[in-house]
Amino acid sequence: MSAVRTVEGDVPGGLLGVCDAHDHLFFGSPRLPGQELRSRSAALAELAAFAAQGGGTVVQWTPYGLGRRAADLPALSRESGVRIVAATGLHQAVHYDDATLAGLRGRLAEVFVAELTEGIGTSGVRAGLIKVAGGFHALDAHARWTMTAAAEAHHATGAPIAVHLELGTGALDVLDLLCGELGAPPHRVVLGHLNRSPDLTVHREAAASGCYLAFDGPSRTHHATDWRMPDAVRALAEAGHGDRLLLGGDTTTAAARSVNGGPGMPYLLRRVRPRLAVELGEEAVRRILTDNPGRAFAVEWPGPVGP
User: Fold this and answer.
1) For 138, phi and psi rounded to 5 degrees?
2) Is 306 inside any structural domain?
3) What is the CATH number of the domain that holds 222?
4) pLDDT tens-digit readout, 87-108
5) Name one Pfam family in it (predicted).
């Protein structure tokens, strides 16, 4: 049976409601010192603010080793009323120390599969997607290693693969590797951060493959997000790819949280949703926020649907 694996069990994709398809409740990296997302109370406040705007599900893309706090996620989901999907996977090498990466050599796919099927650490919380990352206009050896492991884990479990595109670049190289060389079905791949590189030709070519395209990280004007993103989304919809679009917030720093004065999770629904409705119409935006995530993150799991 097709289902989305949330932190409290598998649910049909149609029950996700309005979905933030890429965000972070907990996240910590040496690349962002002093901006770690570690506070449980702040995470709950963000979820509550998202729910108050009509939000139903948050997909957390925080991968292995970056402070996921998986054990806290089920209670946060229950307390807020927002479904949460957790991730396995591995980010770019710069986010880890050498010892961590060395400890994963030769067993990365095994770790991904275990976190998808058995649980993250001792939490018992099973991941629902595999998050990996490309580089700036290129795929280095680390990216190829992690994507190879992600494809292996996908073939073993059916889990979707979500890809951080560095500043929105390298989309076609990622698809060539994951879907060409490694055989992952395009409709099981989600490309993130397309808003950061508003190349409409690349967007259309990527969408034509059948993958999902995520426009995430609103209110980052230095990434040309807010003012170019609606045009990019409209162009894809007009080209017949409206059923492949996803929207997310990608809150990665404490300063970006709404409880700290930033846009945070509610911004996606408070400002981005009505802005896109002007371009696409209310019904098209509703489908992007509800129907599309239910398909993008739902897979045929080998085991029975349930907690």
Assistant:
1) -165, 165
2) no
3) 3.20.20.140
4) 999 999 999 999 999 999 999 9
5) PTE
In this structure, which amino acid lies at residue 84? Answer: I
Tell me, yes or no, whether 195 lies in a domain: yes
Token readout for 58 is 């948050």
Q: Which residues are annotated as a binding site?
A: 22, 24, 131, 164, 193, 250
- Whether the Cβ atoms of residue 178 and residue 212 lie closer than 8 Å to each other: no
Work out the number of other CB atoms within 10 angstroms of the CB of residue 236.
21
Q: 273 is written with which tokens?
A: 């949703």
The annotated binding site for Zn(2+) is made up of 22, 24, 131, 164, 193, 250
Number of domains forming the structure of the chain: 1
On whether residue 75 sits in a domain, the answer given is: yes
Tokens for 306, please give them.
Answer: 């349930």
The three-class DSSP label of residue 193 is coil
**Residue 25 burial (CB < 10 Å; 0-12/13-18/19+)?**
buried
pLDDT for position 302 = 55
Instruction: Please work out, in degrees rounded to the nearest 5, the angle formed at the alpha carbon of residue 182 by the alpha carbons of 181 and 183.
Output: 100
Does pTM surpass 0.85?
yes
